[in-house]
User: Fold C2H2-type domain-containing protein from Clastoptera arizonana.
Amino acid sequence: LTRHIRTHTGEKPFECKLCDAKFRYQSSLNTHMKNHSTENQFNCEICNSEFSSKDALEIHLKLHTAENLFECHICGVKFSSSSDLEKHSKIHIRLKPFECKFCKAKFKFKSTLIVHTRIHTGEKPFQCVICKAKFKFRSSLIGHT
Assistant:
């Protein structure tokens, strides 16, 4: 009953003395402690990276071979799985690769840069069909009508 109650309270009374990780169950702590053990540790002979399981090492080894490589088309980093590449790609989403040549402001999307550039160029591509007034932004045209 005590174990079950912890699933509702979030209590984690078992703490790792090496890294301060906390667990609900003693068995979870015991499993975790194997990560700190140098016994049964799997090392990559190419780059000396360490892994707690043979499976993790085998996945890692694919990075050193041409087998099943997934390459980032933006920066060229290679991954052994498409899911790892997908996670990595989110880094680039946070970047702002589109820079204004007038004021150096940066944007995530090319479309946002195009709209921003109109501030500098004075371009007014949106025209009212009734009175022929021109506007820099679609929202201004919509607000006009």
Notes: The mean pLDDT is 79. The radius of gyration is 27 Å. The chain has three domains: 2-33, 42-94, 98-144.
